[in-house]
């Protein structure tokens, strides 16, 4: 088989290979397997060849699986081993091809002593792609220094149901937010010479009832308009070089065996020419879980034909079972050659085929948690914190110049006594880290080993911020379970304090080890255990109470935000903010930093209202034809701060061609007495179309710093492609018609003017109940989209530009 894009060196290598040498390039080998860090790992591990490395790699090897990330290893020692092992592969295998090394890197390199950054849901909350790109670049440099070539991130699954355990790995519920932030991460990682891997292609997060690996019943339009756009952006705008398949089946067809997705869509339509790697064991799962293959050989044939090039983490199906089917004539060897060419092209681009590969000395004195890492982690953590409510208690201590907190009549509370810090997550480092952190992903199976880097807890950070003598601590309860024996101490501690800070939420983990994370799906969206009761007991003391939520998913906490019952004075949402999360939270609580995060997911009203997305058509929200209320407690994009902002003078072009761009300009005024950052959100609504459209859709956003009493004018450049959708003929198009455009502080801050005219039949779209939350918006402008229907292609611009003018 020949390939016009393959070099002479790659073509010659392929021609020289035996069938066994070819298939060896299509698999990984997992060193040091112990503990469970992948689904059904225990059941599948027995299939891996347990011989010596020399025997296992006698035909060569495609990839080494998680050399640094499977067990705690000293970085310097492991690097020395890896360099020696790569040299051995060059000298002792017939073709002398080194192995590519891949690692997890979702919240930083998942290795012992490596920096742990905020979880992706926090990236989304920051609305700051530029900062996420810097974080990605720092992670990439760490991997490259250690001889790692491919990182298994980012996750571009769009959140549809917060009951799903893997929500903390996701960026948000809006495809454009996911796409822009995820693409920034890709650019950052790949700037360091490490290939990013987009996952999980495609539709994984729509699993039935929020259950991991459950069937997906999304229609082709939802797949095209909701789940695909982030991958399009990361591939076409970010140049992502690898893709990982989803475990799920979509409408009965497992993605790992679906050439319509992995070849027709991914390669033929989107032009992807990199490698597709299997999510761990997903090739074998075609037999053992989906039941569409009779044996491993048939599973290998299905996956290879569909477009999976590399089987990870091990060669369970792509070695002997695949070789047997090729030799028996059941699989065309050209399919094997196609995948091997892609693998060899990747290795060539990464320098693995160069004569001097790994002939230098391995790194020593490796610092995986440098001051640069920590500074980036702290900044991203601070920008991701979302202030959900505040009656004036925050910031703790006197507000600057006596200024009132936003929306409150009085300054932040002047402390006349100690701070009571209470709760199961107040003094636990693991509570700050996500599921794919090394601490929660691997160290959970190595009890007694230290984390290997500094990670101040919320308690320790507040002690540093206000002085240890001014802080009292009581745990109160555990994250899980019904033990209330610590309530009395917590109540007593709160009664003697000027203010109580109650830190509650999740413990991330895998497959039953924790309350959120891969395999930790939930039937309920109530806070785990007795944590709500603990908060209510502290609130009942009358001491002003600040609740900090350290979670990996949004919970149904309407009881803490709304209603006439006693409730917390302030609530702060922190999506696993990483190693500098404790100091970042202390900075926001004390006012050293003003909160600027915005909700990347809607805050749910109840588990029964799920799945929910703010991107719903008129009948997807509350209406008079149903007695249920799906309105979120706080909408997508919501977040308060310590100042206030107003939007003025929105000017939008009157018309735009279906293949053109529209410009929208708005004044953002800081009407408070404190400097602040505002996330300016531009929304749109297509009034009439050939298919139903969302009542509101984020078109673009801009994060701007505005001084107290000052204003800036922000100009958005919006390609008409942002109005596109998949029509009845399953073509992605921009149709002519009217589009409403407005700027708002969140997705629900604007409602259409006037009553909805239904001809007296039924009222719908506005609902029988109105839930008022803080927020503001401009009036809606109307843009007329003119010209013929425009078919959208890969050459059309996908992103919205913005400038301060």
Written account of the structure:
The chain has 805 residues and is an alpha/beta fold. Helix content is 26%, strand content 17%. Strands 1-2-3-4-5-6-9 form a seven-stranded parallel beta sheet. It has a six-stranded mixed beta sheet with strand order 10-15-14-13-11-12, sandwiched between helices. Helix 5 links the parallel strand 2 and strand 3 (100-103). Helix 18 (458-466) crosses helix 22. Residues 398-411 and 753-766 have low confidence and may be disordered. Pfam families: Fn3-like, Glyco_hydro_3, Glyco_hydro_3_C.
Structural key phrases:
alpha/beta, 26% helix, single chain, 27 strands, globular, 22 helices, 805 residues
Give the strand order of the largest sheet, numbering strands 1, 2, ... along the chain. 1-2-3-4-5-6-9
Choose one word for the global shape: globular
Q: What is the count of helical runs? A: 22
**Classification by helices and strands:** alpha/beta
Strand content: 15-25%
What is the number of E strands?
A: 27
- Which stretches of 5+ consecutive residues score pLDDT under 50? 398-411, 753-766
Q: How big is the Rg? A: 27 Å
Percent helix range = 25-40%
Give the integer mean of the pLDDT values: 93
Major sheet description: 7 strands, parallel
Distance between the termini: 55 Å
